[in-house]
Specification:
two-stranded antiparallel ribbon, Helicase, Ruva Protein, domain 3, globular, 46% helix, alpha/beta
Length: 321
């Protein structure tokens, strides 16, 4: 194992440990959130209210030494509320830019599916190019700019489905379920004592393992994780299979191929390896593809789920040896 690989493993291990002081259980969720951050991508976090979606992102920002901002999406939220606007200054007789909360490193777009498409689209340029255009002037965002967009399941009242173009810009979808009984019991006991998760985070007991500059350097070290050509072809074949599956109306595009490649490499790094295996691809396939696929209505009526479709595709595509 090279020095870069060892350093990368150490940073990831420390980050998981520090986040674990606040987030009880949810080990897979934490790993996938770290994968999104360390690959420079964005994540869609889905779960019912109260499962610590907001607390997870706040904790990650603290542990990775980055700025944090939160936007509560509501039906009356306007694009200018996100990116900012120019305000006329009477004293100076000129317009002054008042930057919106998007000018940060870690942005929590809370309940993003409660805002209409016009407001959601205000994030598109920022997510893709890390640029924001206000009154024809373009402003550069932090190189570490990462969006964690939380959403309640779509069957809840007062929600709008995300546009396909926007969903495709999220590297992966993180599903946060309710904790197991023992985990919830631990949470209940801590809530009644001095070590409640929110108190622990505010007390300074959770340490930052790197700073913003260190995060950029660590991302570059992911390049040392090797991936055989056979595995690259395996990823391409999986994504292409979603486009020809009879139950899929809209399959995954080339951006999904890129996301799955990056995700598998980061998954290997979190596991402490400097090489990617087929199991890494299988482990990340559902998270990367699930939110990108649209089933044909007749198959939805029959009760087929996207997860089952992806599982079937993984069984059909030949695994490289």
């Amino acid at each position: 194992m090279t020095q870069s690989t060892e350093r990368l493993k150490q940073v990831l291990t420390q980050a998981r440990a520090e986040v674990g002081k606040v987030i009880i259980g949810q080990a897979e969720v934490v790993d996938r959130a770290l994968i999104a951050v360390f690959t420079g991508q964005h994540a869609l976090v889905e779960g019912v209210p109260g499962v610590a979606k907001t607390l997870l992102v706040r904790t990650l920002a603290h542990v990775l030494g980055c700025e944090f901002a939160r936007i509560q999406f509501t039906p009356d939220l306007m694009p200018a509320d996100i990116v900012g606007t120019n305000i006329f200054n009477l004293q100076r007789n000129e317009f002054t830019l008042v930057k919106g909360p998007i000018f940060t490193s870690f942005l929590l777009a809370d309940e993003i599916n409660r805002a209409p498409a016009k407001t959601q689209s205000a994030l598109l340029q920022a997510m893709q190019e890390r640029l924001v255009t206000i009154d024809r002037d373009t402003h550069t965002l932090s190189p570490n700019f990462t969006v964690f967009a939380t959403q309640n399941p779509i069957e809840y009242e007062g929600t709008y489905p995300l546009p396909e173009a926007q969903k495709d810009r999220f590297m992966l979808k993180i599903s946060m379920g309710t904790p197991e009984r023992e985990e919830e019991l631990t949470l209940a006991r801590r809530t009644l004592g001095p070590d409640a998760p929110e108190v622990i985070l505010a007390s300074g007991a959770v340490k930052a393992v790197i700073d913003a500059e260190g995060l950029r350097a660590t991302r570059e070290e992911l390049a040392v994780i090797t991936m055989r050509d056979e595995l690259v072809a395996y990823v391409v074949d999986i994504v292409r299979a979603t486009r020809s599956n009879e139950s899929v109306l809209v399959g995954a595009g080339p951006r999904a191929t890129q996301s799955l490649l990056l995700a598998t490499r980061a998954s290997a790094a979190i596991a402490g390896r400097d090489f990617v295996t087929p199991d890494d691809v299988k482990a990340m396939a559902t998270a990367v593809l699930e939110h990108r696929l649209i089933l044909r209505p007749e198959f939805e009526i029959e009760g087929l789920s996207i997860t089952e479709v992806i599982r079937g595709i993984l069984e059909q595509v030949a695994v490289p040896r």
